Every structure is written in C-alpha cells, then in structure tokens.
User: What shape does this take?
Amino acid sequence: MLTGAKYGKSNVRVLKVKKLTATHHVVSELRVEVLLQGEVDESYTKADNASIVPTDTIKNTIYILARDADTVEPIEQFGATLCNHFVSKYKHIYGAEAKIIQYKWERYVDPNSKEAHPHSFILRKGETREAHVTLSENKGFEIDSYIVGLGVLKSTGSAFHGYNKCEYTTLKETNDRILATDILAKWTWKGPLQLSAITELAKSGRFDEAYEGARDITIHRFAHENSASVQATMYNMGQDILNRFEEINSVHYEMPNKHYFEVNLDWFERKSDNVIYAPQSDPNGLIFCTVTRPRAKL
Ligand code: AZA
Assistant: This one.
C-alpha cells in the first residue's frame, strides 16, 4: 500500500537580472526546489504516467515564472507564486512545496565616492536567506523564513559553569571562553495565509523587515549578552524576535558550538592567558531551540 508520495525538481539554479535601466540592475541568485502532491498514486502503483507533470516541466516553469515576475524577491512571495501556479493549473495537484535558497549578492559600494555601483555585486559567502513555502489546496499557505550559515565569534563575554557533573565529566568550568557558531534561524509566520495576505506582506516590505530584523536581533544579542550558555542565549534571541514581530508565531535556532581550546604554552615559558587557541574542526556541540508564542486565551 502506498502511504506517501511527492515528487518534483530540486537544485534548479536561476539568476534573475532585473533591469531598472540598461545598466542599473538588481540581481537575485536562487536555488529552487519544487515538490508536488496530488492524485498521482497510479504513477507509483500501476506504472501509469498520465498524472505526472514531468519534473522537467517543473524546472521550465520555475524559469518561466521567474521571467514573468517583476521580481523574484522577496523569496517568500516567489515561493507562493510557484506553489499557487502548480495547484491552480493542474486539477489533480492539490499540494505544493517550494524551498528557495537566496545567495547574498550585495551591491558594491565604492569606499571613496560612497557610490553604489549599478551592476557590480559582492557575494557574502557562506550565508544564505531561505524560504520554505507550502500550499495545501483546502488550507492555504504556510511559510518559514530562514537565515542559514551566519558565522559569528566572540572572544570574551561567554561563560559556561554550573552544569551537571558526574564521574565522566572532564570539562572545566569557565567564566571566559570563545563562543563561535554558524547560526541557523528559522521563523514561522502565523498561518495559514492566503495569497492576498502574502502579497500584502511582500508589498509592505514585511518579509524583508523580518529578515533584517531577525539578523540584527541575533547578532545584537550574541554580541551584547554576557552568555551563560548557547542554550540561554539562543532562547533570548527567539524571545526578542517574537517580541518585535507580531506576525511570527515561532522561532527556531540551530547552532553548532564550535570549540576553540586554549593552547597550554607553559612549557615554553609563555603565559596561558586566553590568547592562543586551537580551533577544533570536530567534534562540535549541536544545540537546538524552538520558542513559540503562547496561545492567546479565548
Ligand atoms: N552548552 C554550552 O553553551 N556549552 C557547552 C555545552 C552546552 O550544552 N556542553 N559543553 N559545553
């Protein structure tokens, strides 16, 4: 018995150049995945391909809708446009998911003239903005927005003590350590949403405000808080985002605790005073947290 089925195209890479003038451009580089659900069971159970919208068609559609749209930003809106297309066009498709990764090409600003260059961009490598949009025909849209791969390090202002100790514990308590991580932050929009509400959020700049706001809050809390642990700091970040954005229902963080061990230089008659550390490639701590807005009392 078939108990689950979805399919689509993954890793569709597309660069859209929005031409404000012949030389003044906006670029958006995306990696897109679209998966479909619907009355497709017989393609699995009876080798009947009649219901399959080929994944090649899905790929072509991503290019065509990117061409037809005025802009593919914010990616939350483009994801909704994609999902809406597949569910509206094909009667037997009743669900769609779009996962979009946006690479961070930032406009080059000349350091001397302070002028923003009209068509030259610099990549903020390693960090991406992402959106996961799902549409189910009879419910509406659900949207998760993400920051992925935001690398941060602080060289003091982080402690870790008072933890559980047993006969297997060797970790020393510390009031001063390196705290370094690659942050994944996800925020879930209150839903389900209709397409018109998503268009309104996009038009009013709310998806971008939430992205910039979540990023600022995360970095600000990381920098300014005297951290008791990764756990306590990420929880506070989540609360800060919920306090700032009433349209967001929950915030989820994932952070590797990237360890830096102090090198003991006593042998060489040098002080060990938190100056020389050896970055550890592995293992790393891995810490998750989801903070959800309490349900309003009826
Ligand atoms: N959280 C931290 O912030 N640091 C740690 C942990 C932990 O759970 N475990 N070892 N070091």
